[in-house]
Structures are given as C-alpha cells and as structure tokens.
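can u do me a favor
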C-alpha cells in the first residue's frame, strides 16, 4: 500500500512538471517578457488559434550593434590626445644646480646585543651561588649515603628462603608468595 502511494506521488509530480512545461510552450510572452493574463486578452484572441512561430513570422530581436570604430582606432585616437596633452604640459624646465653634499662615512647598521647586567649586588650574587653549590653537594652526598645503605642491607626474605635451617619458615613464605587463586 505504501509503495502504491509513493508511485502515485511520483506520477503526480511528473504530471505537474509536464503541465507547467506545456503551459509555458503555448503562452507567448508580452513585450514585458511576461505571459499575457487571461483577462487582458479579448474573447476573439482566446478562441483564435495561434500561429506557430517560425523564423519568418517571429520578430527578430535586435542584437547590440558592433561599434562603428574598431578598438585600434579608439586606441590611436586616445594616444594622439595623450601626446597633445603631454606637449602642452611640457614647459622649459631649468636644470637645478647640483648641491654638493658631504660624503658620509659608512656605518654599521647591526646593533650589538646589550651586555646582560645583573640586578643583584655582586656580593649577594656570589653568596647565592656559593650557597647553591653547597646545597647541591649536600644533596649528592645524601643520595650516595642512601645508595650505600640500600646495598648494605640484604633482603630478609631471601635469606630465609635460602637458609636450610629455616625450612619451616621458608615453606610458609613460599605458600604465601605462591598463593593459588580460586
């Protein structure tokens, strides 16, 4: 049923387009370019058959005529006018006397970057750097000491597992570490 409705809608649309094309084909436009309204035509015009427009009966549309002069003629005329205007504008011009200017020494246009200046007093800057170096050295020494402590302390559980005298504790630890997941 839905397919039938869809086909019916498509046929209606096609019929509408055919109707509008047919109506446009038989309506002749007025001078304005619009099709004549039905009330503007006389009853005789409505009933009289319209002749089919042919090349002989159809009025020719006027095309824009070609210019009487060619582009080259217009160009020559404009150039001659420009030459006459230039000749009239030319007046005898006195040559100015050359003015001697002193020769300037070449200078470098590059700017050297300014030297970085510290806003701190030199004594404070030295003191700050010295304290900073001391803090870095203390941190390095602390790191090395902790590293030595880690190496010196053996793992207690590893000793229990490898010691034959503590087999019972080793067995318990192995059961804890190898716990079965149910």
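np, heres the sequence
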């Amino acid at each position: 049923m839905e397919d039938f409705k869809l086909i019916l809608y498509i046929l209606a649309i096609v019929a509408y387009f055919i109707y509008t094309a047919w109506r446009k084909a038989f309506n002749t436009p007025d001078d304005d370019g619009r099709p004549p309204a039905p009330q503007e035509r006389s009853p005789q015009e409505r009933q009289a058959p319209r002749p089919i427009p042919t090349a002989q009966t159809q009025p020719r549309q006027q095309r824009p005529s070609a210019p009487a002069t060619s582009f080259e003629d217009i160009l020559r005329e404009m150039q001659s006018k420009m030459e006459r205007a230039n000749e009239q504008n030319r007046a005898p011009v006195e040559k100015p006397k050359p003015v001697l200017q002193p020769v300037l020494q070449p200078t470098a246009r590059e700017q050297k970057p300014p030297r970085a200046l510290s806003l701190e007093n030199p004594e404070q800057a030295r003191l700050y750097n010295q304290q900073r170096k001391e803090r870095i050295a203390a941190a390095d020494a602390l790191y090395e000491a902790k590293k030595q402590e880690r190496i010196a302390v053996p793992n207690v559980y590893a000793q229990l597992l490898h010691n034959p005298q503590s087999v019972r504790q080793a067995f318990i630890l192995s059961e804890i570490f190898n716990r079965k997941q149910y």
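Helices lie at 2-26, 43-47, 71-89, 122-152, 156-162, 167-177. hope that helps!!
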